[in-house]
UniProtKB/TrEMBL annotation:
Domain ATP-grasp: 76-275
GO annotation, cellular component aspect: cytoplasm
Keywords tagged on the record: ATP-binding, Nucleotide-binding
Domain of life of the source: Bacteria
Protein name, as recorded: RimK domain protein ATP-grasp
Molecular functions (GO terms): ATP binding; metal ion binding; ribosomal S6-glutamic acid ligase activity
Species this protein is from: Gloeothece verrucosa (strain PCC 7822)
GO BP annotations listed: SOS response
SUPFAM superfamilies xrefs: Glutathione synthetase ATP-binding domain-like (SSF56059)
Pfam family, one: RimK
Amino acid sequence: MLTNIRLLTEACKALNIHYEILHPSQNLVRFKIGQEDYYFTNYTTPFLSNSVGKLFKDKDYVYYVFKDRVNVPRSESFLSPYCPEKYSKYLHYKNIDAIVEEIQKNFLLPIIIKRNTGSAGNNVFLCQDIDQVKSSLDIIFNVNSKEYDYVAIAQEQIDILREYRVIIFKNEILLVYEKSIVDAIFTGNLSPLHWEGSKAIHITDSKIIAEINQFIAPMFEEMKIPYGGLDIAIDKNGQYWLIEINSHPNFEIFIRDNDENIIIDMFKKILKSYLKGYVG
């Protein structure tokens, strides 16, 4: 049973919400409130619609939805020259050399090159020179790789001082933790919590939470965020940035470093909102 599913079922038990485990892996769970069924499938939750989940997974879409509301690193997306013929009408650059030339024209080095729909820091590269940009694109567009993506993102590098994961439910902050790399060792993955010795530090400081809340408030004017994990960074000048949104955040690393009851209580708060909305 995945950590997220286990913690969710503990929350259901605490609230006397009936649930059923529907698969031998124990990673398909149904719970019922009133006459309504809700399903948890691996890391997918019923807390947000499929369309919003797809939007949050797409870094390019997230950029265009929120770039006029909050600070988002300037980005440009590039379709793979090896994409299927049916997508060729969207293809503006016929080969990788043409993409590299466009990036060189519009961005300063160093630069981040990453796949559009990836997670956990896979195929995210900090490129110091044009040769590294080209090799990063070659890796992302490798159709024989399980990490293949047909869209790559070029993104300006932000000089990050600290990075936070912020869990949102119905436009409300439920949890903040820092992805701390203090005394950690870089092992090749740029995602902070994949560094050796990194820590997920639960943030309860009301000043930090208030600052983050003030920063993300304009996002809610653009769209209601039903659920998600916002990666929020603060740079060395004290400026906040939205890096990306995780549609189905995983809490395994968080409970490695913190009391798992924090997440159980968070799920209980979410489930209570479903109970409150049901008139029996």
